Amino acid sequence: MRSVSPSRRTRTLLAATAAVLATTTALGASPALAAETPVDRYVALGDSYASGAGVPDQVDSTCTRSHRNYPALVNAALAPTAHKDVTCGGATTVHMTSAQNSSAPPQFDALSADTGLVTLTIGGNDIGFASIILRCVSLGVFNPVGSPCKNSYTWTGTDQLATTINATAPKVAAAIDGIRQRAPQARILVTGYPAILPDDGSNCPSVVSIARGDAPWLRDTHKRLNTMIATQAAAHGAQYVDTYTRSVGHDICKPAGTRWMEPLFTSAAAPFHPNAAGEQAMADAVLTAAR
User: How many Å apart are CA 238 and CA 178, to the nearest integer?
Assistant: First the structure.
């Protein structure tokens, strides 16, 4: 097969998309959403969607953690006696019990017997979120009206991402069980992931080069991931927090001021991640569940 030499615009697009791999989103949540029962100790665990990757201001550059991430907003609303946020961009379920880097010890180290509330956002990196985005955006450049990314993941007749999501289920289950073992009295809230693409299956080629035929498949893959997380939460004594439903209509295709998720070229958050409004919406979902 003859190789295709990408244009300068394409190279710029792909370079910006690759930034997602490196990062692998206003204080003052409404008091009306605060939990009615005081929280003794709140611990936040999870990946870049929880850490607020790229959202100004970043207070931990190694873990791409923002002072306006949803754990900070939940903490401000609940005012627990103690709070520990160890969320870290790029985290997988492995990093619950293993160090992620020199400054990010195992996230479970933050748990203790007196922990009263735990939030967990995990699973996206276990299925290869960054590589999926990179592949789909790259292939969409050359075939914008087809479904090149879906074809690349299903050419064997099996949906590789569906298989990967199924294989991630026991990892999420083990993470929830691990929290319970270390914090037996804690209430465990496990969040899903908010909508990245339009819920109607449409795409927005002027914003990001995800092909027309790939958009509905990616939406369905996203929902499959959330369903898996919800199922594991219910089966292991945790409460699932739906962050997707309220985010419909606030995807990357919407204009600034309406979108809660940022597109490829942005300074408001890491690409394909929640901005400050998105983090606030996640916090509101958690606080509603915590009542």
Answer: 12
Given 95, 222, 250, 273, the catalytic residue:
273
Q: In what side-by-side order are the strands of the sheet with 187-191?
A: 82-85, 41-46, 117-121, 187-191, 239-241
Tokens, residue 75: 């903490």
Residue 152 among the catalytic residues = no
pTM for this entry? 0.88
DSSP per residue, 202-248: ---TTT----TTHHHHHHHHHHHHHHHHHHHHHHTT-EEE--SGGGT
Please pick, among 3, 30, 48, 250, the residue that the annotation labels catalytic. Answer: 48
Where b means 16+ CB within 10 Å and e means fewer, 103-137 reads ebebbbebbeeebbbbbbbbbbbbbbbbebbbbbb
Tokens of 277: 């409004």
- Are the C-beta atoms of residues 162 and 168 closer than 8 Å to each other? no
End-to-end CA distance of the chain: 58
Q: What is the pLDDT of residues 103-140, one digit of tens each?
A: 899 999 999 999 999 999 999 999 999 999 999 999 99
For the question of residue 48 being annotated catalytic, the response is: yes
